[in-house]
Amino acid sequence: MPSIRRLPVAGEIIEPKIESACLDETYRVLDVHEDTNRIVLIPVTPRSSKKRLYFVGPSVGALSQVMTELDKHWLAINVKGVAPRADAEATNEDLDKKYLRRGQEVSNPRKDREAREALIGHLIKDSEGNKLDLEEYKLLFDPQVRSERISELANKMGSSKRTIIRTKRMLNELLNQYWSGGSVPGALTPFSGAKGGRGKARIQKKKLGRQNAPTAAHHVGLEGFVMGEQDKDICGFCWRNYYIRGTTCAKALRRMWREFYSEAVTGKDGKIQRILLPIHQRPTRSQFERWGNERSPGHDSWKKQLTKFNLGRIDRVLLGYSSDNVVVVGQQGHTDSTSPDIEFVRVENRLDRIGPAHRILVVEGMYGYISGFYLGLDAPSTVTVLLAFLHSLTDKTEWLKWLGLDDIDPADWIQIRYSSVIADNTDARCQGVIEALDQIGTGLKFVGVARSDLNAPAETSHHSLHRMVDHNLYGTSHGQRHERGEERADILARMTIIEAIRETARAIHTYNTMALDIRPTMEMRREIIDKGLTLNRLNLTRMKINQGKLAMSLIGNDEARIKLMPHVRGVFTQHGVKLLRPDTGQKREFIEPIQYISKHSLMLERFMKAKVGRAGVSAESFDDDFRQDPYNPTELYYRNPIDGDLIRLWMKTKDEDLPFECSIPDIINLMKSDAIHLFNARNSKEEALSHMEEGQEATKQEASDAYDDALETVEKPPSKSAIRRNKKANREQEKSTYQYGMPIQSPPFVEEQNTEGIEKGIQAEQPAQNDASKETKQAPEFVDEKTIHKGDDKPANENCPPVPISILQQAILSRRQEGNKRGH
Amino acid sequence: MARVPKVTWEGIEGMINAGFGSGFGENYKSLLQIKRWNTSPVSVQVVKPVPPFKRKCHFFSLSEWYLALLFAWIGAHIREQFPMWPWQHQHPEYDRNPEVDATLPWSEGMQSICRDMGIKHGFFVGTDIPYIWTIDLCLHLPWIITPAKACCLVSVKPLESERYLYIDPLDRGPEKLEAERRYAQAIEVPYFLGDRSLYPGPLFAQLEYLADAAVLPCNHPWSATLGRFLSKYGTDISTYPLVDVSERLKVDYDATTEQAAFLLNHILWNQLVDCDLSLPIKTSLPPRPGGRNLQSAIRSSIQGGIK
Q: Which residues of chain B make contact with A419, given a CB cutoff of 8 A?
């Protein structure tokens, strides 16, 4: 500390350097009078008594002694002075900023400082508010003068003796503080910082509030528990961790007592018991609630509504993003499954509900680009997870065509192979997925239990898709429980799975290509915005790929299919490959409506073998494994066992709409419903045949009877040779009555009119008529009914004039009559 | 979630016979593997190969994975979850080179070490079968000629967590670390504690994506492209921005974007151009040198270990 040797000046600081110096502490010089050898000093630091701060008054000393000790370096003048308190230097605004409480316009320290300044202003200023003359001012250092002036002022201000005494003491203290602090108004600033200002807890010494019963009854030592800092922390901890869902406040309190305010006592049986401390040595419930809430704010209401599992999941700080370590595209993917919150209906009958579906997303970790997904009825499993990755890896041109999304550019779907994928411990954590993804060079990272925050890109994508598509479609449950009075989601269901896939694809495309409302980085601005491109996930991902920031190169579509596509069992037949239904167990049944064909030489060879080489071999001889791409159901793949290449087969079906509206399971379902239709069709077919044969039988019987009647008319049945004789002539004769070799058909009404009269004539001639002629008689009536039934408003026999019989008809009638005569 | 399999002597014998916990390089089989039943409440578990091998490695924390990548980058061969059998057994390098097997010290086994330390060795839960301790990473350092010294044991622990910042002498974790140290000391191999917090973060981020391009087989068609490229531009690569490497590969060698990216990653992983991977790589700038020095510094550090 630099010190100089000279006469001290008012306002300077003198410090002792040794203990035996005449000044035992740091003093401020108030006045120096060389002629009278007097120096007025005042201690700089306040005294403390019972936590109360006060300043002692100025004292008068011998200047020569001070100077001597300064020469000896026992004392030193500190030319830099002492650092004033922060509050002493603070402006009014600073004080308000620091100490202003809610509802106040002026902070208490500022108010106090201004009041104090005004108070001692009567002593240090004249009546006009100007500073006193220096000589006048120095008189204040004289204890007697000072006392008189203070008494005079106090008498003016005080009303009673008590207040006068108080005012005197206060004025004395304020003057001391003023001088000690360098005679500046800031020195009068109260020690609010030491009082426990805002944000400072007051140290409690004794129990506050009303007395408890024992204390009220004058039992000493049973006063309430005084909370220390540690106790308050314990309350905060227990409030945070014990007062959770499924517990009550009382239970949490008792648990706190057990774990923090108890003693382990070994009982007579050797068992350890926790004995709670006496009630006055542990916090009360109100203390628990007060300090628990104080130390763990915001943990009371919402925690009660969460499960312990969810609480552990969200009750933690997150010091970064899950994509913090991702620097290139494909370095890290994210996958997760969820329900789309939609109830679906069947393809073949929309009145049949089939319940919810499952969706698996594959999301790129760098910008959240969704590169692939699975949506279907199958729950997350090895097959479905691999299908999602297959979708991410393969070209989607055909798939988009299949969905009818011709307006979406297939190039907008970037194929990405991931170096590693983050997944939770559910669908992807199985040996099948680990093995299959290892084959395509993708590793797996499994987050800790309940650490879905580490898989945030997938989770947020779920959320976005729920908002963008799921909750906008028919049959959505909005991801919430059904409430009374609301229509159930399955009642509102209207959509099939394939429609949901179509809309999900559209939504994902929108999600990937819509503009992002993020603050662009310099790179984004340079590479995308300045080039007139939209700042979206697709362009950001493309930008990185074009920069060469790509973790893994793509593998071919065929390789991806070989490694990820599910295997299906099919059979080579002469018409192509037919798939076996997977739902019939040991029973071999084809998915009949579809078959797959190819002109590959190996395939043709196998088809031919299936056609000609069936003898002596079992039914399974032509079975084989095929790979099926559900995103491209019109194709099937067969891996050539010789060179390992994939051979593509195309679907062939008579139902053109089938491949575009139904997946394979849908086709199987259709087959089931078709089976009922076929059963009924077969039944009605048999009925029709039976009906027809009944008519044939009747006709045959009639013919036979007529023949028998004809035989009865002759004496002797003609011999076989007689029957066959004149066959040609008979034929010519018969033919002459025909037109174009056919019996002549007359209009019904004509025949009716004419045959009626004829029939009557015949009837008159032949009273004994057989059954067949009766039916013939009834025929006109039948025809008439039929005519009316057809909607003919005017029956022919009523409105039409009689038509004359033709020559041909006359001939027929005359021949019949001849025949009858001959018969009789 | 699948149930924890019951541990029996027969099961352990079967695992040992099947080669779990033994073998080298591509043929090593991790003793502990990630299954449906052994999820972690705190750690991210990783299943992925570590170069230069293609076998799946099982890491039970992200730090293990990152450190394995780091050591693979400097040329070490990783054996993860390496067993420290309870009974007397051979040196970790035993059987790699039969000619020197006789010179390698044997371990007394963890049961003996724990007994000497006065701590419990532990049993499989619900059985009287002694637990099989595993060390997180057992490294083989091929650049060291002495076989006994060409091995290093690494225990990966979250050194920034309170458990390891403020050691409680009664805590099981630190006590196990001491047992591991004594194990390594007994077989005269270096041992040290590791954590990803000890190294700069960008290093791991970059090693992670470069690792997939670490190996390019000689007979791969891209290998010839790379050879031609390096013979022509190899000396000048360090003076041009890395993006120029990609462009040059695309323009001069008809490489696709993906092929160029792979070759650039391969160059960086293998430090064919000296590039400091501990700093974020800016492709628009020439590579910042320092990667090779970093490699040699890490090599030197792991050869020391805790004695």
A: 48, 208-209, 211-212
Structure tokens at A251: 């239970």
Helix or strand (DSSP H, E) at B57: strand B57-59
pLDDT digits (tens, 9 = 90+) for A656-687: 777 777 777 778 878 877 878 888 888 888 88
Tell me the nearest-neighbour CA distance from B185 into chain A, angstroms: 33
Most confident of A370-379, A724-733, A779-788: A370-379
pLDDT greater than 50 at residue A751: no
Which residue, among A266, A280, A330, A301, has the nearest Cα to A545 in the 3D structure? A330
Query: CB distance from A523 to chain B under 8 Å?
Result: no
Look at residues B198, B229, B250 and tell me which one is the last residue of a structural domain: B198
Q: Look at chain A and count its residues.
A: 824
Q: Are B47 and A330 inside 8 Å of each other by CB?
A: no
β-sheet bridge partners, residue A52: A49
CA distance A652 to chain B (A): 37
Query: Over the stretch B70-109, which tens digit does the pLDDT of each residue have?
Result: 999 999 999 999 999 999 999 999 999 888 899 999 999 9
Cβ-Cβ pairs closer than 8 A, A with B, add up to 108
A555 in B contact zone (CB under 8 Å): no
> Could you tell me if B49 lies within 8 Å of chain A, comparing CB atoms?
yes
B258 touches chain A (CB under 8 A): yes
Query: Using one digit for the tens of pLDDT, what is the confidence trace for B16-53?
Result: 999 999 999 999 999 999 999 999 988 999 999 999 99
- pLDDT at residue A759 tops 80: no
d(CA A394, CA A414): 9
Residue A767 confidence class, pLDDT cut points 50, 70, 90: very low
Contacts of A548 in chain B (CB under 8 A): 242-243, 246, 257, 260-261, 264, 283
Q: How many domains in chain B?
A: 2
Determine contact: A313 vs chain B, CB below 8 A.
Answer: no
CA distance A447 to B47: 12
Helices of type H across A217-326: 229-241, 249-260, 285-295, 308-314
Query: Is there a contact between A650 and A597 (Cβ–Cβ < 8 Å)?
Result: yes
Find, among A579, A561, A573, the residue nearest to A647 by Cα.
A561
| Shared-domain flag, residues B223 and B137 | no
- Pairwise CB contact (< 8 Å): A551 & B209: yes
Closest CA to A376 of A478, A481, A504, A482: A504
- Angle between the B257-269 and B221-233 helix axes, to the nearest 10 degrees? 70
CATH at B125 = 3.40.1350.10
**HSE (CB half, 13 Å, CA atoms) of A609?**
14
The whole-angstrom separation of Cα A415 and Cα A333 is: 12
Please tell me the predicted confidence (pLDDT) of residue A198: 57
Chain A residues whose CB is inside 8 A of the B34 CB are: 429, 434, 446
- For residue A443 the two structure tokens come to 């590793």
Residue of chain B whose alpha carbon sits nearest to that of A416? B258
- A551 touching B (Cβ < 8 Å): yes
**Does domain A332-481+488-546 fall into CATH 1.10.260.40?**
no
- Per-residue pLDDT, averaged over B129-152, amounts to 92
Which of A445, A547, A551 is facing B45, going by the closest CB pair? A445
Average pLDDT over residues B263-280: 93
Name the closest residue on chain A to residue B33, using Cα atoms: A431
| pLDDT exceeds cutoff 50 at A752 | no
Which structural domain, as residue segments, surrounds residue B239? 215-289
Q: Are A326 and B205 inside 8 Å of each other by CB?
A: yes
